[in-house]
Write a structure and sequence with these properties.
Rossmann fold, 8-stranded mixed β-sheet, 384 residues, 3-stranded mixed β-sheet, alpha/beta
Length: 384
C-alpha cells in the first residue's frame, strides 16, 4: 500500500489536526529524531490515531511505524490516548464530544457494536470526554447557528460560552434591525409616545404619576442615577413616585446620590428566579434586585406590596432587556389604569408594553434611535 493512500478510520478525525507552528515543530522533531511514537491502526489497516504523525512523516520522508489495536473499543481507546496526551480545555473537549454525538445514525458492518460511534448518545459522549452535557449542547447550538465559530472553539481560541454570546448578539442585531425598520412607520398614538432624547436636556410634555425605569448598571453609568433623581422632581406630579431598578454592587452609592435630590420612600424586592448569573467578584448568586422608590412629596395613591417577581428576561431585542411579565407585575401592583408612566431609559420598550396592557398611558425616551423605533414597533404590535 502506498502510505499516502492509507485510509483513516472515522475516529481519527474527532480530535483537531495540528496547525501552523505546532505542526512545523512536530515535523522538525520527526525529521531529526525519527518517529518515536507509532501510528495506531485498526485490524483493517485504517489509521485510528496519529494523523499528525502520519502527515509529518509523509512531508519529511520519514519511515513510519504502525501498531495494530486488536480490540473492539476503538473509540474509548482513542479518547484515552488523546486526553492524556493533549491539554484540551473544556470547550475543546466538548467539540470532540459533539463530533461523536453528531455522527450519522445507522449501523456499520465493518466494526462491532461496542465500537459503533452511531450508538453514542450526547450525554454518553459528554461523559467520555469529562465535560458537561450543557457545554456539549452549547457547542452543537453554536455549530448550527454559526459554523464559522466551530473551528475557533476547536483550536481553543474561544470558549463555548463566548461563542454562544456571539451567536446571541448576532441574532439580536438582526432582530433589532427588523423590528426597528418596522417601527419607523408606526402611526402616532394618543395613549403612548417614545422619543429619541437625552435625560439631561429633555423637556417633558407633561408631569407623570410614576417614573418606572431600569437604568444601566455598570459603574461608568452611576452618574445617570443622580441626573435621574434631579429630573424626577420636574417630571413627577406632586405625590408621584420614582421607581428605579438597580443592581446591588453599587447600591450604597446610588442611594446616596439619589437621596440628595428626592426623598427616599421604600425598597421593593424584585425576585429573579431562574436567573442565576453569578457575581464571581462578590462570591454571590443574586436572586433578587432592589427597586428603589422615591417620592415627590407625600404619596397618597394605591396601597401596594413590596415583593414582585420577574419572569424570563426578554434579551432578544436588548442585551439588558427585562421581563415583560415582571414589569407587568410591578405596574399592575402599584399603578391604576389611566395613570401616566414615564420610562426615561426606555430600551426596547418592555415597560411601555406592560403599561399599555394595564390600561395606563406611557411616554418613553432613549438616546438610541434604534431603541426608539423598536419600542414603537413593540408597543404598537403587542398592545393592538
Amino acid at each position: 500500500m502506498n502510505e499516502s493512500d492509507r485510509p483513516y478510520h472515522e475516529v481519527s478525525s474527532i480530535f483537531p489536526l495540528m496547525q501552523g507552528a505546532d505542526f512545523e515543530a512536530l515535523k522538525t522533531d520527526i525529521k531529526q529524531n525519527g518517529l518515536l511514537e507509532p501510528i495506531w491502526i485498526d485490524r483493517d489497516g485504517k489509521i485510528i490515531d496519529g494523523r499528525n504523525r502520519h502527515r509529518a512523516c509523509l512531508d519529511t520522508g520519514t519511515p513510519e511505524k504502525f501498531r495494530t489495536y486488536e480490540k473492539d473499543d476503538v473509540l474509548t481507546f482513542v479518547i484515552g490516548l488523546n486526553l492524556h496526551r493533549r491539554h484540551l480545555n473544556e470547550t475543546q473537549r466538548a467539540v470532540v464530544a459533539s463530533k461523536i454525538a453528531n455522527m450519522p445514525q445507522g449501523g456499520r458492518t465493518d466494526i462491532t457494536p461496542s465500537a459503533n460511534l452511531h450508538k453514542v448518545s450526547q450525554s454518553k459522549a459528554a461523559s467520555m470526554l469529562n465535560v458537561s452535557p450543557r457545554t456539549v449542547a452549547t457547542v452543537k447550538a453554536v455549530e448550527k447557528e454559526a459554523p464559522e465559530l466551530l473551528e475557533k472553539m476547536e483550536r481553543g481560541e474561544i470558549t463555548a460560552h463566548e461563542a454562544s454570546k456571539k451567536v446571541a448578539e448576532k441574532k439580536r442585531t438582526q432582530e433589532r434591525k427588523e423590528v426597528a425598520d418596522a417601527g419607523r412607520s408606526v402611526p402616532k398614538s394618543d395613549k403612548w409616545n417614545v422619543w429619541q432624547a437625552d435625560i439631561t436636556t429633555w423637556q417633558a410634555p407633561r408631569q407623570y404619576d410614576f417614573i418606572i425605569t431600569d437604568p444601566p448598571y455598570p459603574k461608568e453609568y452611576l452618574p445617570l442615577y443622580e441626573v435621574l433623581a434631579q429630573r424626577a422632581n420636574e417630571w413627577l406630579k406632586p405625590g408621584g413616585l420614582l421607581i428605579a431598578m438597580c443592581g446591588q454592587s453599587y447600591l450604597n452609592q446610588i442611594y446616596e446620590m439619589m437621596s440628595k435630590h428626592i426623598e427616599y420612600y421604600w425598597t421593593l424586592a424584585y425576585l429573579t428566579p431562574g436567573q442565576s448569573a453569578s457575581l464571581w467578584q462578590k462570591n454571590v448568586i443574586p436572586k433578587w434586585k432592589p427597586l428603589l422608590v422615591f417620592a415627590n412629596g407625600k404619596y397618597s395613591g394605591k396601597m401596594f406590596g413590596d415583593v414582585y417577581e420577574s419572569g424570563e428576561n426578554s434579551k432578544e431585542l436588548h442585551k439588558w432587556g427585562q421581563s415583560e411579565s415582571g414589569m407587568f407585575d410591578v405596574i399592575s401592583g402599584i399603578c391604576l389604569p389611566g395613570q401616566y408612566i414615564l420610562d426615561p431609559f426606555c430600551g426596547a420598550g418592555t415597560t411601555g408594553v406592560a403599561a399599555i396592557k394595564h390600561g395606563c398611558l406611557f411616554d418613553g425616551i432613549d438616546l438610541d434611535q434604534d431603541n426608539v423605533n423598536i419600542s414603537k414597533g413593540r408597543i404598537n404590535d403587542e398592545t393592538a
